[in-house]
Amino acid sequence: MTYTPYFVHGADRPARWLITCDHATNHVPEFAGGGDLGLPRADMERHIAYDIGAYEVAKLLGGMLDAPVVASNFSRLVIDPNRGEDDPTLLMKLYDGTIIPANRHAGAAELQERLEACYRPYHRALARLAERPGTVVVSVHSFTRQLRGREPRPWEIGILFPEGERFSPFVIEELKAGDGLCVGINEPYTGHLPGDAIETHATHAGRPNTLIELRNDLIAEHDGQCKWAERLAKVLPQALENSGL
Question: What is the CATH number of the domain that holds 33?
Fold first, then answer.
């Protein structure tokens, strides 16, 4: 069976939105360590391997907004599509206290193979969809409530964006106007990494965008995924209308 490094849903949907999911699955292709990175199954089911619940939310949200969805089909531990090609964390060797055995001694040839087989095809697909006139990029991610040895994170949702981005402040405003959510502003991470997916496909081209981080315990099950997709399907269009973009 031919390996497919990304999924596209609703490529011909007419809405301005493009929903992306960079860390959609925990799949390890056969060419990467024989389909096994050397981690126990329990670790591959953790947030270190993919964004739990994010893909399901992205698909639901795309359907509700009548917008295309593009998602990766490889674990971020294989290679991280939300990093620039020159980022030292592109191929993670240690994540949240866990050593990634198959990556520990991975060299330039293995990195290049993963770039060609996974990373670059995903980015080409994302670029094709983003080229439509007026595209607004919405990147859906999830985060764990608590990293090992750290304090619990208080946010239910975080909105990440680089300085000067015009759309995200309106998304935050709409979320805060709702039902008492704890909203992180560039939390639990910084809103910009040089060469990341948003910079590459939205910021450089001047496309409105926002990166949404949902706490993964809230979207681990179908009911929570539906709830958050429905909430975002109301918030995003209102924010876009308010922004005038």
Answer: 3.40.630.40
Q: Using CB atoms within 10 Å of the CB of residue 169, give its burial: 0 to 12 exposed, 13 to 18 middle, 19+ buried.
A: middle
Answer yes or no: is 1 within a domain.
Answer: no
The verdict on residue 158 lying in a domain is: yes
**Domain limits at 166?**
6-240
pLDDT tens-digit readout, 109-167: 999 999 999 999 999 999 999 999 999 999 999 999 976 767 889 999 999 998 889 99
**Which residues lie closer than 8 Å to 226 by C-beta, 6 or more apart?**
60
Please state the domain count of the chain: 1
How far separated are the first and last CA of the chain, in Å rounded?
A: 43
Residue length, the chain?
A: 245
The first and second tokens of residue 9, run together, are: 């849903």
Phi, psi of 158 (to 5 degrees): -120, 145
Task: Give the amino acid at 69.
Answer: V
